[in-house]
Amino acid sequence: MSTIALPKTSSYDRTMQLFGGMWFMLLALGVAIKIGSSAHDPWPSLLSSVCLAVFYVLLALLVITRPPAKAQANGRLPRIAAFVGTYMPWTIAFFGETDKALPNLASTVCVLIGMIMMLVTIRHLGRSFSLVPQARNVVQTGPYRWIKHPLYLAEEIAVLGVVLRSPTPLTAVLLVLHIGVQVCRIYYEEDLLRRNCPEYSGYEASRWRVIPYVW
């Protein structure tokens, strides 16, 4: 996979920052409106919604304030993988919900754990956050001390929670497809970082990718 160097002032990058930030702020607004209209829902559901709204606001701020990238992946496939990996799993919510207590409880637990892990990870990732594979800095603090891609792990836990809320063969297939897309994103990002961040080789040699002692 090739990479392209980015100019220090890129109107395209600024435009994408603006639209990306607006998109996540709109998502946060939608969640906030839902919270306001569902004030009598059980507290686990409300807590999950609040955490999600905070997460979207944080994403918006990170997208808008992130520094210029050193380089980014060239070609359409990394961009397609980033788009599908970011937005596809949240379409599962349109497949309805189960009325069984156990799947709903398990769903709430997974979503909360995933969202909290995301917030902790993004706190350490800071302005190195991006959707399309881009090279900025090699973060080695927080969960990055143990695994290279804690954000993907957190996201999959949250997505599993969404699937448990709508347990059907179709949503199970979407989960498997999403995991496959995320694996592709991991390989794209690692290749990009190896090419543009000399310190990454030493970092990756002593860390697992996603799950310690597994992969």
What is the overall pLDDT average? 79
SS field, number of helical segments: 7
What is the helix/strand order? Answer: EHHEHHEHHH
Q: Main sheet, how many strands, which sense, barrel? A: 3 strands, antiparallel
Low-confidence blocks of residues:
2-9
Helix/strand/pairing class, anyone?
Answer: mainly alpha
CATH architecture: Up-down Bundle
Helix content: 55-70%
CATH class: Mainly Alpha
Count all strands and give the number.
3
Total number of domains: 1
Large-scale geometry: globular
Strands ordered across the widest β-sheet = 1-2-3
Rg: 18 Å
CATH fold-level label: Four Helix Bundle (Hemerythrin (Met), subunit A)
* Strand portion: under 5%
Distance between the termini: 22 Å
Short account of what is shown:
The chain is mostly helical.
Structure description:
The model is unreliable at 2-9 (pLDDT under 50). The chain has seven helices and three strands; from the N terminus they run βααβααβααα. Helix 1 runs antiparallel to helix 2, helix 2 runs parallel beside helix 4 (101-125) and helix 5 packs antiparallel against helix 6. The chain has 215 residues and is mainly α. The protein has helices at residues 11-37, 43-65, 76-87, 101-125, 150-165, 169-196, 200-204, and strands at residues 3-5, 71-73, 134-135. It has one domain (3-204): Four Helix Bundle (Hemerythrin (Met), subunit A), CATH 1.20.120. The longest helix is centred in the C-terminal third of the chain and has 28 residues, at 169-196. Strands 1-2-3 form a three-stranded antiparallel sheet, with helices on one face.
